[in-house]
C-alpha cells in the first residue's frame, strides 16, 4: 500500500473521529444541563434519579458503557443489532457519559451564583426562566469554561475508545492498516492527528475563555 492510499484511508477515520466529537458535544451539553436541573430539583425522586445516573455514568468505564449500549438491545431485549447501529451506539454512549460530567460542572457553576441576584431579578419583575437564561446562565458559562475545556480535550482522546465495538474511527483505522502493513507509520499519523486536533480545540476554547473574561 502506497502512502497516498494509506492517507486516504486514514482521512476517513479522521472524519469519523471529528463526527463523534461534534455529535457528542451537540447532545451532551444540553442533556447535561437538563440533568443538572434534575440534580438540583426539589423533587426528591427526580433528584435521586439524577444523582444515581451521574454516579453510574461517572463510576463505570466509558468502554463498558459502549459495550452495554451496543450489545444491550440484543442480550436484554432480543432485538437484532446491525453494523449500522454502531454509529448510533457510539454517539449515544459518549453523549450520556459526558452529559453526567457536564451536569456536575453546570451544577457547580449554578450553585456558586449569589442568591442576591435571583432576589434582585425577582424585584425587577423577571420570571424564573428569564432570570436564569438572561442573568444567571451567561455568568455560569464564564465560570465553568475552564472545566468544560478540560472535558472537551479529554473527549478528543476518548473518541479512540470506539474501537471497542469495532467502529472505524481514526485509531481503529490506523491499527488495522498498521497490522496489515506491519508499519508504524499509521500510528505516527494518528498521533499527529490527535495532537493537532487537540491543539486546535484547546486554542479555540482558550480564545473563547479570553473573549468572555471579565478582565480582558
* pLDDT < 50 runs, ≥5 residues: none
Number of domains: 1
Q: Please trace the helix and strand order, writing H or E for each element.
A: HHHHHHHH
Number of strands: 0
What is CATH's topology name? MetI-like fold
Tally of helical runs: 8
Q: What top-tier CATH class fits best?
A: Mainly Alpha
The proportion of residues in beta strands is under 5%
CATH-defined architecture: Orthogonal Bundle
Overall, the morphology is flat
The overall average pLDDT, rounded, is 87
Structural class: mainly alpha
- Ends: how far apart? 52 Å
Name of the CATH superfamily: MetI-like
User: Considering DSSP H and I runs of 4 or more, what fraction of the residues is helical?
Assistant: over 70%
| Main beta-sheet strand count, sense and barrel state | none
Rg is 21 Å
Can you characterise this structure?
There is one protein chain. With 216 residues, the chain is an all-alpha fold. It is 81% helix and 0% strand. It has helices at 3-39, 44-59, 62-77, 85-111, 115-123, 128-158, 170-181, 185-212. Helix 4 (85-111) packs across helix 6 (128-158). The longest helix has 37 residues, at 3-39. 27% of the residues are buried.
